[in-house]
Amino acid sequence: MRGFPEYFTFWHIAGHYALRFTAYLVLAFLILPILVIIPLSFNAEPFFTFTQGMLALDPDAYSLRWYNEIITDQKWTLAIRNSFIIGIAAAFLATVLGTIAAVGLASPWMPFKRLITALLLSPMIVPLIIIAAGMFFFYTSFGLVGTFPGLIIAHAALGVPFVIITVTATLAGFDRSLFSAGISLGASPVKVFWDVVIPLIRPGVISGGLFAFVTSFDEVVLVLFLAGPEQRTIPRQMFSGLREQINPTILAVATLLVFLSVALLVTLEVLRRRSERLRGAE
Amino acid sequence: MSDTTAGTLGGKPDRLGKQDARNAAREVRARRVRAFLFVMPLLIFIMFAFVAPIASMLFRSAYNPTVAELVPASLEALADWDGEGSPPEAAQAQFALDMKRLANDRTSGQLAEEINRFLPGTSSVVKSTARELRRTDDAELSANGAALLLEADEEWGDPGIWRALRKAGQTYTSSYYLTALDLEMTRDGTIQQRDTQIYLKLYGKTLWMALIITLLTLILGYPLAFHMAHCSTSRANFLMVFVLLPFWTSLLVRTTSWIALLQTNGVVNSTLISLGVTDDPLELLYTQFSTIIAMTHILLPFMVLPLYSVMRGIDPSYMRAAMSMGSRPIPAFLRIYLPMSLPGLSAGALLVFIISVGYYITPALVGGTDGQMISNIIAFHMQQSNNWELAAALGSLLLVLIIALYWLYDRFVGAGNIKLG
Asked: Which residue of A has its CA nearest to B50?
């Protein structure tokens, strides 16, 4: 720690430490509620709270029974499968369409750029309940309610803004003359896109896809309105579990999801570093 | 580049020939079209998957063809009536015929409900009249329908109920918006406030809760972002993990942890009891308090991230300069640092406010009856009361509110400046 300047009085220094203390308190507020569910998920009893035995660190008070429940209960295995099917399909759709569109949006020749960007980013701003209401009315008339395609389309629309934002950010460091060079050498726009643009913006595309996947994986409001019993996802299952019968299986699922988000965070950080390196190398 | 070359070489501004100008224009057009073609697939997709559903919801909130479909002939006959005195005999007879048909189809209840929306207290008039006319002969109805209607209920002598029928027969209606704003149509057609305020109060409560949540995230987020922005980069990156992990953790996981913490036998209550702070567990869960605290926790990263990115760019030497020249820390902070951090502050605050106004999941799970927000009543009208039109009207008003806030956000922050992680 650097020394304090000479003009600092006692109160300056006290204030400095008070601020630091506050910052750590806020960090604790952010992180502790998430960490607390991890030990709770190993509870041997069907409670959402620490038992006497757990506090005494009695090994018998801990068990893996709720994790076992996830694997054996058909509702949960179906939900896990559905979440991955819908999440991967929706992320794929959003990433493909979003990446192509971001390349067009980054062009200085793009007409109506502001309006179209606002339109494409709007699924991020409109409250989910409004989207759910609109989609429910509209998708019913196409027979899409209660089907996988319906949910995939809905979730892909939610993921699009994230792909646009991340890919546009990567394209900001992209030298557009490479594109013109490819065209002038006689390649079709599609070929240039595939062979020149994509390899250079890959980190942005992957992180956009991850954002889209997480958006779908975590989404529950649209699932509540658009999914039938066959399309129940993990968050949907947690939602009904929390409403109807609270049971530590939810905590076990939550713990697994926390570890999944840690893995995701690490992946994104690696991607970010690589993208920075690519840009630095230019 | 070419301008300067032309200038230095020729001495005169270079002029394009007609052919060159045409070629250039064609090239520009080709580039514009090419850029647009890249965006088009997504644009079509978003139009179908997202914009059209929202538009159809807006449409539904003002569209009610029920009455127009139930009694089209009567409405047509009433079209020429000037609205004063009794409607023409022929129109009344036609309506009497329609009533009989509805009574036999068992759809007169729907008509009663719709007319009642425009003229409260007329539901029973319509229902009883339908019962009366159910067995009457068609020929007799078309001969003296007006008299038979009056015989069934003398209310039919009042032009008011006919006006209500005609109004209910309009395919496009503002009635759901009136309901959503706690207004109603009186007997003489003026608009007045309802006796019980439901929705306006709920909108007010939603905005109020969103404001409290925004202030709480600001109070908690500002010192944290400040500390992170002014410690070493490696330390800041380390601390950032603790902000990003909750940000990336499933919403339901975070809501679940608050249920585990706050429930009657939960972690907070058992801690308080074992510390002797209280003897009986406090009712923390399923209240407005639990909604606000859980949402503050969930939305805090949205405040910290923009604040941090702005604060990171503030040169600390400004503050040092002020203090070395004798300013006390608080005035120096208020007059120098705070204005410089304002872009991050307004970005975070508007973002948190916009998100919390439309929040559904957390209030639904931890809010009880006290902590419900406007989204929850929209869901209620869609799922339980099946009043889709009212849900659509409430949703449209919420959408207008969000768009207004987003417009503010765009004005002050710039929508393109949204950053992720």
From this structure: A157
Element housing B21 (H / E): helix B18-46
How far is CA A45 from its chain centroid? 32
Of B294, B307, B297, nearest to B245 (Cα)? B297
Chain B interface, mutation test: which of A30, A124, A219, most B Cβ atoms within 10 Å?
A30
The tens digit of pLDDT for each residue in A161-197 reads 999 988 988 887 778 788 888 888 988 888 888 888 8
Q: Which of B207, B216, B248, B417 would you mutate first to test chain A, the one with the most A CBs within 10 A? A: B248
CA distance B4 to B395: 57
| Domain residue limits, chain B | 2-61, 66-173, 201-417
* Residues of chain B with C-beta less than 8 angstroms from the C-beta of A221: 360-361
- Please indicate whether, in this complex, the C-beta atoms of B253 and A107 are within 8 angstroms of each other: no
- The reply to whether residue B358 touches residue A138, judged by beta carbons under 8 angstroms, is no
Structure tokens at A98: 């979003």
The DSSP code for B417 is G
State residue B100's pLDDT score: 86
pLDDT one-digit tens code per residue, B271-308: 888 888 888 888 888 999 999 999 999 999 999 999 99
What tokens were used for A154? 């809905």
Residue in B with minimal Cα distance to A138: B53
ipTM of the complex: 0.88
Measure in Å the smallest separation between the Cα of A114 and chain B Cα atoms: 9
Mind listing the domains of chain A with CATH numbers?
76-246 (1.10.3720.10)
Topology at the third CATH level for domain B201-417: MetI-like fold (1.10.3720)
CA distance A228 to B248: 27
Given a contact cutoff of 8 angstroms between Cβ atoms, the answer to whether A38 and A258 are in contact is: yes
Asked whether the beta carbons of B377 and B341 are under 8 A apart, the reply is no
Written as one letter, the residue type at B216 is L
Tokens of B75: 């409405």
Contact A120 B42 (CB under 8 A): yes
What is the C-alpha to C-alpha distance for residues A93 and A32, in angstroms, rounded to an integer? 36
How far is residue B274's CA from residue B278's CA, in Å, rounded to a whole number?
Answer: 8
- Residue A127 is nearest to which of B41, B48, B398, comparing CB atoms? B398
CB contacts < 8 A, A to B, total 279
Q: What is the C-alpha separation between A122 and A161, in angstroms, rounded? A: 7
Return the beta strands (E) in B173-318 as ranges.
183-185, 191-193
Answer whether A131's CB lies under 8 Å from B50's CB.
yes
From the number of C-beta atoms within 10 Å of its C-beta (0-12, 13-18, 19+), residue A137 rates as: buried
Question: How far is B94 from B145, CA to CA, in rounded Å?
Answer: 7
